[in-house]
Write a structure and sequence with these properties.
The protein is of the alpha/beta class and 289 residues long. It is built from nine helices and 13 strands. It is globular.
Length: 289
């Protein structure tokens, strides 16, 4: 949960107005709204909020016989998410945002350049996730934020979901994580009762999606025919497969999604521990004086 006193106050005039969120709510239909809520519920189940005072450091101490250990975990002061100018998947954004919010980070900021068009699904996803600090950014603001980060003694991370925010890349004092957006996705289709293909296409506008053996064309997807053995040889970042093919797919792809879970996403390089500062000290028994 964020505090009322932000570490990096941003101009109110650069905040995405409430009216934009209201228009997005009007534009998004019930099925998409339900998909986003399902995604958020799944992420909160996978990354539950820290109990008690989420921002309070946690300490563990234990003895390993001849060695005493002390481990301290402190939530970061800030996380800044940099969104691309091009369309972004609301599911991929939520998969990065929710772990940051549940980890007790003091300030979470989402920034996008002013030339970018905000997708309705992205605005609704941010609102449903409880993200209030959502801003548009011009070149001067980008420079100011980057300089503030470089001069700050606060601990934080910049999550670049675009890969082209050069101003932030020049702040070596701040850790930067870059997430690949345009990862290819594959859907192995066996029947209409399995996957909502149109919804998958709608929620992943930033990825090339190939659907195998579908009986008709789906907008935003490439179509291909072939057997499952050939499907397994493809370099997909995520595979959508029927339940009975789950184990085979899971042994090959980083993320396997079966019917009912297609609105989920997972970043293996971005977990709750990445939003905390961890410190470990070791002491040989009896040498603390």
């Amino acid at each position: 949960m964020e505090t009322s006193r932000p570490l990096f106050p941003l101009p109110a005039r650069r905040r995405v107005p409430d009216s934009a969120f209201a228009r997005a709510y009007e534009a998004v239909d019930d099925s998409c709204m339900a998909a986003l809520k399902t995604a958020i519920a799944g992420l909160f189940a996978m990354y539950p909020p820290r109990p008690g005072d989420a921002q309070k450091p946690r300490r563990q101490e234990w003895s390993l016989g001849w060695l005493d250990a002390s481990f301290k975990e402190t939530p970061l002061d800030f996380v800044i998410f940099l969104l691309p100018d091009s369309p972004i998947s609301p599911l991929k954004l939520l998969a990065a945002l929710v772990p940051a919010r549940t980890s007790g980070v003091r300030q979470v900021i989402v920034v996008r350049r002013e030339a970018a068009k905000w997708e309705d699904e992205v605005l609704v996803a941010l609102e449903l996730a409880g993200q209030e600090a959502v801003h548009v950014c011009d070149d001067s603001m980008e420079t100011r934020i980057a300089k503030s980060l470089g001069a700050s003694k606060s601990l934080g991370v910049v999550v670049d979901m675009a890969g082209d925010w050069a101003g932030f890349a020049q702040t070596p004092a701040v850790r930067c994580v870059r997430l690949a957006q345009a990862a290819p996705l594959g859907v192995f289709y066996e029947g209409p009762e399995e996957f909502a293909l149109r919804m998958i296409s709608r929620l992943h506008p930033d990825s090339g999606i190939t659907v195998w053996n579908a009986p008709r064309k789906v907008r935003g997807m490439r179509h291909r025919s072939g057997d499952f053995e050939t499907f397994l040889t493809q370099p997909y970042a995520a595979a959508f497969v029927p339940c009975h093919l789950r184990e085979c797919a899971a042994s090959r792809f980083p993320l396997t999604l079966c019917p009912g879970a297609e609105t989920f996403w997972w970043w293996p390089r971005l977990l709750p521990a990445d939003f905390s500062a961890c410190r470990l000290s070791l002491l040989s028994g009896g040498r603390d004086g």
